Amino acid sequence: MIYDICYFLAKAICKLLFRLRVEGVENVPRFGPAILASNHVSYLDPIFVGVSLPRKMHYMAKEEIFRNPIAAWFIHKLQGFPISRQRAGSSSIKRAVELMREGKVLLLFPEGTRGDGKTLQRPKPGMAVIAELSRAPLIPVYLDGPGQVLPRGSRWLRFHPVKVTFGTPVHPRSGTTSVAGEAKKVDYELLLEDFVQRMEEIRKKSQERKAP
């Protein structure tokens, strides 16, 4: 109930005040598991991605937020669960894989921290581990605008258009999860490289469209 209320209110605000535009929704499966991996430029990113899809999503939030009981209760109601920014714990990865096996949608920010909105930071390997173990499609999500709506260090929102782009899915190259050791690390690296390349393509297209 709380999720639904927040969803419809936030969606109306995002469209009205920030002229939210969404592209590539067809790249997200209507049913079944999906991992949404987005760049991170603002504290508002989960909201903009969340209202861009009709499907409910779970998401990872930094563990510091859960130290406040009220915030922890509210985040849990919005289907969030904690993760450490320093290390992706086994419990977080296990929870993410369970959600994929249940056919849910998971939103994560593999950069681990907010960027400058101009360049993409190297994604953390935990994203690749979740994708490899669950075999769920990894969908790159590029956000353009939230960094201007709530810039770093600012406490006030600014009126600025926001665009959310869902790219074509990236799939693990290997067809098995039984490989271990160095071979599996190679699989993780290949998946990360494919993801970074796909994200760069989306970012460049977005910047080209904005150019005069």
Biggest beta sheet summary = 7 strands, mixed
> Looking across the biggest beta sheet, what order are the strands in?
1-7-6-2-5-3-4
- Tell me the number of structural domains: 1
Q: Kindly report the name of the CATH homologous superfamily.
A: Glycerol-3-phosphate (1)-acyltransferase
Kindly name the structural category.
alpha/beta
Radius of gyration: 17 Å
Low-confidence stretches: none
Distance between the termini: 44 Å
Instruction: Specify the CATH architecture.
Output: 3-Layer(aba) Sandwich
Q: What proportion of the residues form beta strands (DSSP E)?
A: 15-25%
Mean pLDDT: 86
Could you give the count of β-strands?
A: 7
Q: Tell me the helix content.
A: 40-55%
Under CATH at level 1, the class stands as Alpha Beta
Based on Cα principal axes, name the global outline: globular
**Run of helices and strands:** HEEHEHEHEHEHEH
Number of helices: 7
CATH topology: Glycerol-3-phosphate (1)-acyltransferase
Considering the chains and any ligands shown, give keywords for the structure.
single chain, 212 residues, alpha/beta, Glycerol-3-phosphate (1)-acyltransferase, 7-stranded mixed beta sheet, 7 strands, 41% helix, 15% strand
Notes on the structure:
- The structure is a single chain.
- By secondary structure, this protein is of the alpha/beta class.
- About 40% of the residues lie in helices and about 15% in strands.
- Strands 1-7-6-2-5-3-4 form a seven-stranded mixed beta sheet.
